[in-house]
Amino acid sequence: MGIRKITVRLSAAERISSVAWFIESKGMVKTAEKFVDAVYDFFEKLADPRKSYAECRNPEKKMFGYKCISYKKKYTIVFLETVSEIIICEFLPTKMLQ
Fold first, then answer.
1. Average pLDDT, the chain
2. Burial 31-68 (b: 16+ CB within 10 A, else e)
3. Could you tell me which of 47, 52, 56, 58 has the C-alpha nearest to residue 87?
4. Under a CB-based contact definition with an 8 Å cutoff, are residues 89 and 78 in contact?
5. Which residues neighbour 68 within 8 Å (Cβ) at sequence distance 6 or greater?
6. What is the dihedral of CA 76, 85, 14, 29, to 10 degrees?
7. Tell me: the pLDDT tens digits for 31-61?
8. What is the 3-state secondary structure (H, E, C) of the chain?
9. Residues 65, 49: contact at Cβ < 8 Å?
10. Closest Cα partner for 7 from 97, 89, 67, 87?
11. Sorting pLDDT into bands at 50, 70 and 90, what band is 3?
12. Whole-angstrom Cα distance, residue 69 to residue 79?
């Protein structure tokens, strides 16, 4: 069984790091590190080729074929899915999609 390649676009990586920086600015350095590790571990779980994900409910994102998945009910991961690759395009607070 093969695993799909995971590619994280710069915009998503910057958003993850800005959330981690905010957590760090509150004096919780270890928590920020754990947050980043947990997010990237979640990305690796998306690489399972046996799973397919639903399209986004947002009409603009759906039009472009983006898939969306919730992360801890607080964030939404927007990505493109192919047979051999997952491209993480955006990491957004769920409130921003509405």
1. 92
2. ebeebbeebeeebeebeeeeeeeeebebeebeeeebbb
3. 47
4. yes
5. 53, 54, 55, 56, 57, 58, 61, 76, 77, 78, 79, 97
6. 80
7. 999 999 999 999 999 998 888 899 999 899 9
8. CCCCEEEECHHHHHHHHHHHHHHHHCCCHHHHHHHHHHHHHHHHHCCCCCCCCCECCCHHHHHCCCEEEEECCCEEEEEEECCCEEEEEEEEEHHHHC
9. no
10. 87
11. confident
12. 8
Q: Residue 18 phi/psi, 5° resolution?
A: -70, -35
Q: Which two tokens stand for residue 32?
A: 């920020």
What is each CA distance from 96 to 13, 74, 75, 77, in whole angstroms? 17, 10, 9, 12
In this prediction, what percent of the chain has a pLDDT beyond 90? 80
Q: In this structure, which amino acid lies at residue 42?
A: F
Identify whether the C-beta of residue 45 lies closer than 8 Å to the C-beta of residue 53: no
With tokens 């800005």, the residue in question is 18
